Structure formats: structure tokens, C-alpha cells
Amino acid sequence: MELISVKRIWDRGEHNAFTDLIAFQKALFCVFREGSAHVSPDGALRVLRSVDAGDTWQSVALLSSTQADLRDGKLVEFQGELLLLGGGAPHDKSGLQSYLWCSKDGICWSEPLEVADKGYWLWRLTAHQGSLYGVGYRAGPDGDTRLYKSDDGIAFNTWINVFNNQGYVNESSLVFHQDNGFCLLRRDPVWGPEFLGLLGKSSPPFNHWQWQALDKRIGGPVMFIYQSRLLAVVRLYEGQIRTALVEIEPDAGTIKELLTLPSQGDTSYAGVVLNGDILWVSYYSSHELAIVSHSEGTKDQDNKTQDKSKTMIYFAQIKLADEI
User: Is the model's pTM score more than 0.85?
Assistant: First the structure.
């Protein structure tokens, strides 16, 4: 396994974060939130496109709202169209609403469609056998998650009303492989002591799931299958916070770190595209601040350091070994 390259592809916003990546119509599309801070009312979803396998990128769309902070855009191809899912935190505090935009070319986007239940953040969608599946979470001391299913990309019906409520469960990633469904679920020690990630497994029709606690805390998960193995790119917390490529071993209930991407601090929320044995990864990080702050000392240079104290978007290429 080898990190072939990593490059910064966007840094124009004050805070650039929460990415996703997809291959669509012979191009790569990367979406992320651009705003003035990690949490701010002006969050918008910017879409970049690359037609040369990630060598160069152009901004092709910016989706914004006068009524909500738009967050965590996620991309999925469904029925020949590109769908963009995002969460909107309304300025009037009336409760989070999930939105869906659609596009035939990744450049021109429809008006947003409200999807799922208000107050539930539908965080990512996965296509499987002509349907879309996604997990929505409701934050709070009594929060939980719901599993949603859509056959048309418009109506998202509750497939499981209480999907998991073992602690503060929130961000998720679903994959389907050999008639099994797998869900990687994040937990945080906010409204309880539980913090280890969870792995769920189910078989069709995916209305009964078995859960096991893993051995690490994770954030911003995106999971994929490579050579029948469960791999993911996540935020890891022990030691220095970082973005890492990991393998999830269901039998042992462990998360094995395979490769650490250049990252630190405010980081992760990756998107992945598997192209043979090459893995393309989008993610965000604030690690370049640490590099600059150790090498610059004058007042003018400190101003330069402050200019670089924001998160930025990166694109990495990883060569996956034949055997992991």
C-alpha cells in the first residue's frame, strides 16, 4: 500500500470541510461545505469537477440558502442522475431538514427537495438493487437513528423506525456485499459514556440488524469494499487526531489502521472512489497550520500563519496492495 500523491484542491473559503467524491460521466466530482467557520449560518455546498483524474479541478456549482446553513453534502448516482444530499440547519432553529438536489450533468442543479423526517439528519445515501438506503440521526439525550429507503429518489420511507439508539449514534456509512448489508456507525461521549464505533450487519430485506462494538472511536465514516474486505476512511482520535484508511475486521471487532493521510486537528469526512487498485480520496484538514507555525516567527509571518489557519480540501491517490 502506498500513498501516491496528495494535493490541496481548494482553500478559498474561510472554512472548507466535510467532503464527498464520486465518478460521474467520465469526470470526478467533489462536494464540500464552504463557510466562515466550522459552525456558521453561511454554509454553502460547493461542487468541483475534474476531467483529468484529479490533476486539475474547477468549481462548477455553489448551492446556498438564505434560510439555513447547508452542511455535509453527499453524492450518489441514481437512475442516471447525480443526487446531492445535504443537511440544512435553519436560522430560525426550527429543526434540521435534509435536502436533495438532482442534476443530469453535475453542473446545473434542481431546486432542493425536502426529504426524510424533520429533525432527522439523513447523512449519506447508498444505492442497492434499484433503491436508495440511508441512515438519519436525531441528536439529543434521547436521540436515535432511523433507516430510510427510497425506490424513486423522491419519497424516503422509514424502513426501520429505531435503527440503533446505543448512545449518541450519528454519522454512518452503508455498503452492500454478497447479499449482506453493513453499517459503520459513529458514537460520541456527549449524552452518555459510549464512544466506540459500531458495526451493523444484516441480510435482505435489511429490516433486522445485529450490532457489535468496535475497538476504536471514529468520525466522518465512509466505507467501501475492496477484495471482499471492509475498508473505510475515518477520523481516528487516540493520540493525534488524523484521517486514516482502515480495515474493519468483523470477526475480531477491530479497526486496523492501514495508512495515515497528511492530516491533523479539524479533519476527515472523506469521499472515496475506487478505480481498480487505485483509491481516490477527498478529505479536509488543518494540518498545514502546524507546519507553518513551526517555521515562521516575525509579526508579518505570523499574519501569514493566521491566513493559513483554516481547513482546506485535499485529494489523495492511494495504491492498494494486492493483499492487505
Answer: yes
Decide: 231 and 247 in contact? Cβ < 8 Å.
yes
Alpha-carbon span 295 to 305, nearest angstrom: 10
Nearest in space to 22 (alpha carbons), one of 106, 104, 98: 106
CA atoms within 13 A on the CB side of 43: 24
Q: What is the pLDDT of residues 181-220, one digit of tens each?
A: 999 999 999 999 999 999 999 999 999 999 999 999 999 9
In this structure, what C-alpha cell is assigned to residue 290? 502546524
Q: Could you give the count of Cα atoms lying within 13 Å of 263 in the half-sphere of its Cβ?
A: 30
Cis peptide preceding 90, ω within 30 of 0 = no
Contacts of residue 32, Cβ cutoff 8 Å, sequence gap at least 6: 10, 16, 17, 18, 19, 20, 45, 46, 73, 282, 284, 313
Please name the amino acid found at residue 159. Answer: W
Give the C-alpha distances (Å, rounded to integers) separating 199 from 186, 226, 271, 306.
Answer: 9, 17, 19, 40
| DSSP class per residue in 197-220 | -EEEEE-TT----EEEE-SS-EEE
